[in-house]
């Protein structure tokens, strides 16, 4: 007796829903996220049961890809996602997160920044159903030049790569001044205006991760980097944040600017 495809699909959705039924508000606003490793593990195991489960579970398993840098992986995360981009499952990918899982500097983080800068254009264009992007902040332990290189790469993704279906975006930069780079004084004629991307978003999250004034610190263990003291976080949020919001009434937005 052949079991209807709908039964497999329903079982797979129940497995996913076990881990995603009760979410924080900011997570619940996102359509494509898979929260926690348990859901990924169980979906991966379901794919091994038979071909029918493989067909039903694959779109859920590959809908959200975490491509963050970590030194614990035998195969670097960007190498894994490059392989995925060349597979039939590339069309299942709806959300990709980039960034760093570790706060300390390592050879892996240096290579990650270099590889992302080199590969991002040829990589993202392969995921034709991409709906959501997330960029986590670079570790403050990285040299300033590497942090700047990572931010430049993130900016260039929105300037030069077509993202017609993007509806969810979260960006975490060290300080609020970094967000001003989305609005250059002299935009290149070849660049896609960030306004064109923002007007299609239904979810937007903007966050900062570094202090610019020791008086604002909650935990004194985290030093204020000298290069950040000239750009106080309190000076830049109003113009930058209002610039994002006035372009469109985004249905869900959050910030820690």
UniProtKB/TrEMBL annotation:
Lineage top rank: taxon: Eukaryota
Name of the protein: Uncharacterized protein
Species this chain originates from: Penicillium hordei
């Amino acid at each position: 007796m052949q079991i209807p495809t709908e039964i497999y699909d329903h079982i797979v959705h129940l497995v996913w829903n076990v881990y995603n039924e009760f979410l924080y508000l900011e997570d619940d606003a996102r359509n494509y996220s898979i929260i926690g490793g348990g859901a990924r593990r169980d979906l991966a195991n379901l794919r091994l049961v038979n071909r029918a489960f493989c067909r039903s579970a694959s779109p859920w398993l590959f809908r959200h890809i975490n491509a963050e840098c970590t030194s614990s992986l035998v195969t670097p995360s960007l190498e894994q996602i490059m392989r995925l981009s060349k597979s039939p499952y590339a069309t299942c990918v709806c959300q990709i997160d980039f960034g760093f899982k570790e706060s300390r500097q390592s050879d892996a983080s240096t290579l990650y920044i270099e590889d992302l800068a080199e590969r991002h254009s040829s990589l993202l264009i392969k995921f034709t159903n991409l709906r959501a992007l997330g960029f986590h902040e670079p570790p403050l332990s990285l040299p300033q030049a590497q942090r700047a290189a990572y931010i430049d790469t993130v900016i260039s993704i929105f300037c030069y790569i077509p993202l017609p279906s993007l509806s969810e975006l979260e960006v975490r930069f060290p300080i609020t001044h970094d967000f001003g780079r989305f609005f250059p004084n002299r935009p290149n004629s070849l660049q896609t205006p960030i306004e064109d991307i923002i007007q299609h978003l239904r979810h937007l999250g903007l966050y900062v991760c570094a202090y610019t004034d020791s008086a604002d610190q909650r935990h004194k263990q985290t030093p204020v980097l000298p290069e950040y003291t000239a750009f106080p976080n309190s000076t830049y949020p109003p113009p930058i944040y209002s610039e994002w919001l006035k372009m469109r009434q985004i249905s869900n937005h959050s910030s820690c600017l």
